[in-house]
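Q: Here's a chain of 172 amino acids. Please give me its 3D structure as tokens.
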Amino acid sequence: MKNLMKLSLCLLSFTFLLVSCGESSIKGKWTSSDMEKCKVEGIKEIEKDTETEEMMALMGTSNDEFVSCACEKFEEKYDSYSIASIEADKMSEEEAGIMMFSCIDTEKSWKGIGSLFLGGCIGEDPAREGYCTCVLENIMTDFEPLEMLSWGDEDYEVITERYSDCLALIPE
């Protein structure tokens, strides 16, 4: 009888162990350990890349805010962190950019991009401030920040022509 009791307790313990270990991530509902791994690894990646970290600061988004949002996006799309990690490495720059900007507050990012743009546009000529502000306001109305990431020099030339009415704001 004693052996039967011991065997029963062992089986009961084993059953509880199997049930508790059986928790696994699914699309839309990751385990807390998968979500934590995603966040820890995401923060490590950002901190390794000073350019990305600077961009986050420019966009007015903390690393924690961004990584939490990105992990939630991955959770919606993939069955687990391990799958998301593999798939993220396969993402094109465009796909990654779209996801990234969905996690950034557009209003805050325009403030950051705007200050950077104005500084570069005005340079050492404060008389250009009216012109630069006019162009920036038009860009902010007509484009999303994500679109600007892929701009090349030829795009800026088109923008200059498109907003040529702003040239009148440069004093002679």
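Q: Can you summarize the key feature?
A: Confidence is low (pLDDT under 50) at residues 1-20.
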